[in-house]
Specification:
With 599 residues, the protein is of the alpha/beta class. 53% of the residues lie in helices and 9% in strands. Helix 6 links the parallel strand 4 and strand 5. Helix 4 crosses helix 19, helix 18 packs antiparallel against helix 22 and helix 20 runs antiparallel to helix 21. The longest helix has 25 residues. The protein binds arginine. Arginine binds next to helix 12 and strand 9.
């Protein structure tokens, strides 16, 4: 168990009173339950269904152990009695019921199942797999990205952005009313430092060719000079105080820093296809800070130390170290701002979940913030607040990722490097005649491939793990990579450019094991999305998409499509290819990855 926040018991409960959207996947379960209940040997309530192991030729199983015990029979006999008594009515998706050991196994009716799955993918289109009933319009805040003004985004922000973006899409597909927020780091004493440096040296960083880089350097220079001259730090503090007090020049200059940094961030967000509903930086909560500190004092959650600092002590049993809400000079802290943010979200949205996608190194910070809020009497929002923590990015050798020796790696560099490598791969395929893309498409396809590779490398495993960045592996078009999924999508589209499925194809014909394997995987998307949403785990969707691509490629290598044995089968297989293309596109889309037409 990596983190208490991943405990599935804390996941969003599915409102049981309302039926789920009735996908084939759900109908199978409902039918199995009906068939069992109709025997009169078990009650509907006592039926829980499981997925059989892949080696078992069945699609659903009822483990009878508890029911057999209640009936005073041994499981083997009881499962046989159930299977013998089971009647499968005409028109069901279930085709056969058998007993095996302590299980009653259900297998689909291949033809009926094929027709139902293709039909629902066609009908659902881009919305196939969504289930708006789960979230039922409940508000959910997802805070992600949250980079710092006057700094560049680094790989940690990349992870936050990619994971958060996918979570927003998954939760929206489940019908939650998602509020995505970019909690910019735009407040704090570092802005006093920048203002002091700009004022002292009459700097105009906004006129520089790379203004954000200039600010990073200005900041570093000022701090190192301050080591020899402590009065510099006093002037930085004084400037932050002036900023807080609304000094016009300070406010105006600070706003300029925000604006010029956002120009850079927006370029990155555009490349990643990311947008936010709100961009409430830390400064937004400034007016709420004094009241929060006061409330914490009134409620005896915090106390004032002799020097004037406001401190929260959590006590022995909580194992949390104490923290400050206000310094002796009156300045507030990161914790103060986050406590205010959390309470703001509660008052403003009363969300069912308040999610923070932030690196694992801030785990303690969020534990403290949620505990402060809880002790202030806001138990509900404390319980609903979740820190989705993620690990660091390491290179192929297991070292913390850094491209330029000794410096942190920046997000923009990672994306550029990925796209450069992707372009080289695309050019090589063109030179060898292995791709259908045209020279005009090289840029757009390379961008999609490079960025898709980076996103997928981040999402295919759970966020709590660190991720390994091995350029050759993540860009390979085989194995569990974004490129493999994109290539598979392009392969489907390529077939469909040669022939489109005619309406009314006889999808009942899709009964071969390879075809059924594809259909079964396709049918599980609704389930994968629900599970991903309940556990805040985009990797569940990544996994589903990968397994669909694999099943499709197995099918493609053993079943001719355009040259199928009969024209009926050709039409049916084309319909299957179209459904797979749709499924891959939907899965990739939920991860924030583009699905190219050609590759
Ligand atoms: N700006 C912070 C950073 O770059 C992340 C903010 C995380 N969100 C929060 N509510 N504290 O490290």
């Amino acid at each position: 168990m990596p983190d208490a926040n991943f405990d599935s018991s804390r996941s969003v409960p599915t409102p049981q009173a309302v039926p789920l959207a009735a996908y084939a996947h759900d109908r199978l379960r409902a039918e199995a339950t009906e068939i069992l209940a109709a025997t009169g040997l078990v009650t509907r309530e006592s039926v829980t269904l499981a997925l059989p192991k892949p080696s078992i030729p069945a699609d659903l199983a009822f483990p009878v152990f508890a029911a057999a015990k209640a009936a005073g029979q041994n499981p083997g006999d009881f499962s046989q009695r159930l299977a013998d008594a089971a009647v499968v009515p005409e028109g069901m998706l279930i085709g056969a019921v058998t007993a095996q050991g302590g299980f009653v196994n259900f297998a689909v009716h291949p033809a009926a199942f094929a027709a139902a799955v293709i039909e629902e993918v066609e009908a659902g289109g881009a919305a196939y797999g969504n289930d708006k009933i789960v979230g039922a319009g409940q508000k959910t805040v997802v805070e992600f990205s949250s980079p710092n003004i006057a700094r560049k985004m680094h790989v940690g922000h990349l992870r936050s952005t990619v994971i958060g973006h996918s979570l927003v899409k998954i939760l929206a597909a489940l019908g939650y009313d998602v509020i995505s927020d970019n909690h910019l780091g735009d407040w704090g004493t570092q802005f006093g430092t920048l203002l002091a440096a700009i004022d002292n040296d009459h700097l105009t960083p906004w006129d520089d060719p790379d203004p954000v880089q200039s600010l990073v350097e200005v900041y570093a220079r000022f701090n190192s000079a301050a080591k020899d001259d402590p009065t510099l730090m006093d002037s930085a503090r004084a400037w932050f105080k002036r900023l807080e007090d609304g000094d016009p020049w300070a406010r105006q200059t600070w706003q300029r820093l925000i604006d010029l940094t956002l120009v850079e961030f927006d370029k990155t967000y555009r490349r990643l296809g990311v947008a936010f509903d709100t961009t409430h930086g830390e400064s937004y909560f400034e007016p709420m800070l004094a009241p929060v500190v006061q409330e914490a004092l009134d409620k005896k959650v915090a106390h004032i130390e002799p020097g004037g600092a406001v401190v929260v002590e959590f006590g022995e049993e909580s194992r949390l170290p104490s923290c400050l809400l206000r310094k002796t000079d009156g300045a507030t802290l990161y914790q103060t701002r986050d406590a205010a943010t959390c309470l703001y979200r509660w008052r403003e949205y009363a969300p069912v979940r308040n999610i923070y996608v932030v690196g694992a190194e801030q785990k303690l910070h969020f534990q403290q913030v949620f505990e402060i809020v809880r002790r202030m009497g806001y138990k509900e929002i404390a319980d609903r607040s979740i820190h989705i923590a993620f690990g660091a990015i390491v290179d192929a050798g297991g070292q913390r990722f850094s491209m330029r020796k000794g410096t942190a790696i920046f997000l923009e560099e990672v994306l550029d490097e990925a796209v450069t490598r992707a372009r080289a791969l695309m050019q090589a395929s063109m030179a060898e005649g292995r791709t259908e893309i045209t020279p005009e498409e090289v840029d757009s396809v390379s961008e999609m491939l490079g960025i898709g590779a980076v996103i997928y490398a981040d999402l295919y495993q759970g966020p709590e793990r660190g991720i390994k960045f091995d350029w050759d592996k993540i860009l390979a078009n085989e194995g569990n990579t974004g490129a493999y999924l994109q290539y598979t999508h392009a392969r489907c589209r390529s077939i469909l450019r040669k022939a489109l499925p005619a309406p009314g194809a006889e999808t009942l014909l899709l009964v071969s094991p390879e075809e059924q394997a594809v259909l079964k995987q396709l049918s599980r998307l609704p389930h994968a999305i629900r599970e991903a949403g309940a556990n805040f785990a985009p990797s569940t969707v990544a996994d589903w998409t990968y397994n669909l691509a694999k099943a499709f490629n197995d099918f493609y290598h053993s079943c001719p499509v355009l040259k199928a044995e009969t024209s009926g089968l050709r039409e049916a297989r084309l319909a299957l290819v179209a459904a797979v293309a749709q499924g891959l596109k939907n899965g990739l889309g939920l991860l924030g990855i583009g699905a190219p037409e050609r590759m």
